[in-house]
Amino acid sequence: MAFSDPQLPPPSSNDPEPWSEGDFAPIIAFLRNRIGISLEAHRLGLLQARLRQRLQAKGFPGFSLWHDRVLKVDPAGLGMQLLIDLSTVNHTAFFREANHFTFMAERLSPAIKEARGVVRIWSAGCSTGQEPYSMAMVLAETIQNLSPQRVEIWSTDLSSEVVATAAAAVYNTREVTGVSPTRLRRFFLRGTGPRDGSYRIVPEIRDLCKFKRLDLRDPVWPLPNDFHAIFCRNVSIYFAEDERMQLLNHLAQYLRVGGWLAMGNGEILPGVPASLRKFAPSIYRKEQ
Predict the structure, then answer these.
(1) What is the sign of the dihedral through the CA atoms of 88, 90, 94 and 96?
(2) CATH class of the domain defined by 98-286
(3) Per CATH, is 21-87 categorized as 1.10.155.10?
(4) Active site residue 233
(5) Among residues 23, 96, 120, 157, which one is catalytic?
(6) Are 97 and 61 in contact (CB under 8 A)?
(7) Which of 15, 43, 50, 217 is labelled catalytic?
(8) Full-model pTM
(9) What is the residue extent of each domain of the chain?
C-alpha cells in the first residue's frame, strides 16, 4: 500500500490525542457511512491495531490526519480498499462448519446429477477461497465427470486482496491442516524445492471456481439470478442489524425456486424472507 509523503500540519490544541479513541472516530464514521461496515467492539479494536501499525510504518502520526489527507481526498481510492482489507479479514478453513458440506453431499449432489443445464452455486464472502474449493471437492467426490460446463461455483468477496489470494489457490501447511490425507493427495499439488511447504489446488477443482470482487451492499449484483445454492456464511456480522433483512431478501432473489441458502451456524438473523423455509439449522430452501 503506497501513500505519498504528507505535508503534516502542526498539531492544534483542538486535535484529539494521536491514536486515541477520539482520533479513531473519523475512521469508524467512514466505515459506516461510506463503506457500510459495522463492526463489533472487539473487531474495531483489531482494526485499530492493524491500521495503526500500517500508518506508523508510513510516517503518519495519527488516524484523523490520515483520514483527512487520504480518505477525504479520495474516498473511493486506495485508503478505502486498505480499510476493507483490514476490517473484513475473517477466520476461514477448509470444510469449516462441516454440516453444510454433509448437506452438499447428501442433498445437493443428487439434485445436480438430475439437473439439466449448468448448475450454479455461489460462495458469497469467499474470503481466501477455502469455502468454494471445499464445495468443489465435495462435488468432485460425489459426481462423476464434473466439469465447468456442468457446475459453476461463483466466488465473491468485498476485499480485492483476499479475492486475489483465493484465485491463486496456494496454501501453506497450516492452512491445509484438517484436510484429510486422501483429499490432500487427490486435490492438492505439493510444492517442492523452494516451494516446499506449499500446496496448490489441482486444475480440475480450480476450473470450477470463478472469482470476482463484489460488494453485497450494491443495489445490483452482476451475477446470474438462478443459483441452485448460495453459501453466505458469517457475512451478515459486518452488517448493521437493520440491514441484515435487506441482505437476506436480496439473496433470496438470486435463488431459483427449490434452491438452497446456507448461513453461518452462529449467525443471529432478524427473520427470513417469506419465500424461504427452514430446512435445518442455518439452511433454508426457496419455495414458490
Answers:
(1) negative
(2) alpha beta
(3) yes
(4) no
(5) 157
(6) no
(7) 50
(8) 0.78
(9) 21-87, 98-286
